[in-house]
Design goal:
By secondary structure, this protein is mostly helical. It has one domain. It is about 80% helix and about 0% strand. Helix 1 packs parallel to helix 3 and helix 3 packs antiparallel against helix 4. It is elongated, with a radius of gyration of 17 Å.
């Protein structure tokens, strides 16, 4: 794969993250407004994670992959391959909705604990992103 083609893959992942950022921003703001309207703050975890993870962290991932794309255009980045970036994207985008769903499942039946599994997926996505970005930073 040429450097330009590699950069385009990372830009595509970055654009997907930016679209997800806008989705979670809108959803988080609407949930926050609904919580105020109804005087119900039972969904603080859901609201906070939509805004912090879905908006803040996903925007950071998008910016990081956009930066990596520019580096990949200049030539190959050892260890920074599109398949790993794609795996990171899917870990994050399956982990967050699962974690959010787990936060609203009923407590006591053990179903809410499924959110922990998805939380670990989200953590794995963060670690994989850190590895990819670190490898891109090492390139001279």
């Amino acid at each position: 794969m040429s450097g330009t083609a590699g950069g385009e893959v990372f830009r595509r992942i970055a654009r997907r993250y930016f679209r997800g950022t806008l989705f979670y921003l809108a959803l988080g703001l609407l949930l926050g407004a609904a919580m105020l309207w109804f005087g119900n703050d039972n969904f603080q975890f859901l609201h906070g994670h939509m805004l912090l993870v879905g908006t803040g962290l996903f925007a950071g991932y998008g910016a990081g992959f956009w930066w990596i794309a520019g580096r990949a255009d200049a030539g190959p980045l050892p260890g920074v391959i599109p398949a790993r970036a794609s795996a990171q994207f899917w870990l994050a985008n399956v982990g967050l909705p699962g974690m959010l769903a787990g936060s609203v499942l009923p407590v006591g039946l053990g179903l809410d604990r499924i959110g922990v599994l998805f939380g670990f997926m989200e953590a794995a996505a963060g670690i994989l992103f850190a590895v990819l970005l670190n490898r891109a930073l090492k390139r001279k």
